[in-house]
Write a structure and sequence with these properties.
304 residues, mainly beta, Immunoglobulin-like, 3 domains, 5-stranded mixed sheet, 4-stranded mixed sheet, 48% strand
């Protein structure tokens, strides 16, 4: 043999040469056997030697075929003859598959309160049971999937979008939120989950109608229905200052910290010289797209 060991990659081939040490008395066939007959590795043709061909080596072609797993493989080829003995050649095969996790969906869209499902499997067949952990990058929650050696084994991951207060009309997406990372002994596989909130943000006041007497003051509270995603600005406008005075009249900035407590607004009935009950409407408007204006009716009783 011109080599006691050969190495190749799946799909490649290599040629080794075999000859007899001495001239045979008659035609001699050397049998080739393997200590591990892999289903994807073809058995080379047995070389046959003839007298006076001592220096004529026989080429033996070895080719490693593709298999569905991602594991390196090896075998021992034995060249043997009953009357001569045997010589072994070690064949090492490097697998060309790169094991990775595959998800049936790269993007999952779900509405708050609903659920969704996607599948997980391995690209290449594992040598045994393969544990994949599923973790959300926004929560400290984790569970495991067991993928079996069957390459077609598909495990399902169930997603449930909890009903949260806030973030109305927005989507939470990417690794920063509810994007499960699927990982094991291979590189992680991320699945982005977009959660559409089912809440509708709204301007809320403690009362929708204010009754006040000229010269007196009543108060109301201004809040938002849900916690805002960023900063929401509410502007007070469109009221008749001859009927009532409202303070403070600056814009109100709502954040996640103060959306629950809100702002206290004072409404004072304006003095006039008549005996008529007057009224006006206070309009609250937001810079948040899609948020409806809110109106508070003010009734001012005359004190004359």
């Amino acid at each position: 043999m011109d080599s006691a060991a050969v190495a190749l990659t799946e799909g490649d081939s290599v040629t080794v040469h075999v000859r007899l040490a001495f001239e045979p008395a008659a035609s001699t066939t050397v049998l080739i056997g393997s200590f591990r007959q892999h289903r994807d590795r073809r058995r080379p043709r047995d070389p046959r030697f003839h007298p006076r061909q001592l220096r004529d080596p026989k080429a033996v072609h070895i080719r490693a075929l593709q298999d569905p797993d991602a594991a390196a493989d090896s075998a021992i080829l034995r060249f043997q003859h009953a009357g001569i003995g045997h010589t072994d050649v070690v064949v090492g095969v490097t697998d060309d598959e790169v094991q990775s996790i595959e998800a049936t969906l790269a993007l999952v869209n779900v509405t708050e309160g609903d659920s969704a499902q996607f599948g997980v499997r391995l690209v290449a067949q594992p040598s045994g049971d393969f544990i994949v952990s599923v973790a959300s990058l926004s929560k400290r929650r984790r569970h495991r999937l067991t993928l079996h050696p069957d390459i077609h084994d598909l495990q399902l991951v169930d997603l449930s979008a909890g009903d949260r207060q806030g973030d109305p009309g927005h989507q939470r997406r990417g690794r920063g939120h509810d994007g499960p990372a699927l990982g094991g002994r291979v590189s992680n596989k991320d699945v982005t989950v977009n959660i559409t909130d089912d809440d509708t943000q709204a301007i809320v006041t403690s009362v929708d109608t204010v009754f006040v007497t000229e010269g007196q003051t009543v108060q109301l509270t201004l809040t938002l229905a849900f916690q805002p995603v960023s900063v929401d600005q509410v502007v007070l406008s469109d009221f008749n200052t001859l009927v009532a005075d409202v303070s403070p009249t600056l814009s109100y900035l709502f954040t996640s910290a103060n959306s629950g407590t809100g702002f206290t607004i004072s409404v004072t009935g304006a003095e006039d010289a008549n005996t008529t009950t007057d009224g006006t409407v206070i309009r609250f408007a937001s810079n948040e797209e899609g948020m409806a204006d809110h109106f508070v009716v003010v009734i001012v009783a005359d004190n004359d």
